[in-house]
Design goal:
The protein is built from 1 helix and 6 strands; from the N terminus they run E-E-E-E-E-E-H. The chain is mainly beta.
Length: 71
C-alpha cells in the first residue's frame, strides 16, 4: 500500500480506499479485530481472509492523518 485516500465507516465495517503499486483499490474490513497494529504496520484482513499491509514508515502525511483519526 502506497497511500490511504480515505476510510469510510459503515457501522461495524470499514471501507479502505487505498493506492497500491497496482493502482487504486478498495478493501473492506469487518470489526476492529480485522485491523491489527503491529510495530510500524497496520494489517487489514478482509471478509475473504485476504491480507493488505500498510507500512506506516512509507506513508505520506495525509495518509498518516487519515489513519490516526480512524485506527
Amino acid at each position: 500500500v502506497r497511500a490511504v485516500k480515505k476510510i469510510v465507516i459503515k457501522g461495524d465495517e470499514l471501507e479502505w480506499h487505498l493506492t497500491t503499486d497496482e493502482g487504486n483499490m478498495v478493501v473492506n474490513t469487518r470489526g476492529r479485530r480485522n485491523v491489527v497494529m503491529m510495530d510500524h504496520k497496520v494489517i487489514l484482513v478482509d471478509p475473504n481472509d485476504n491480507i493488505s499491509e500498510i507500512d506506516l514508515d512509507k506513508m505520506d502525511k495525509t495518509s498518516l492523518r487519515i489513519l490516526d483519526r480512524t485506527v
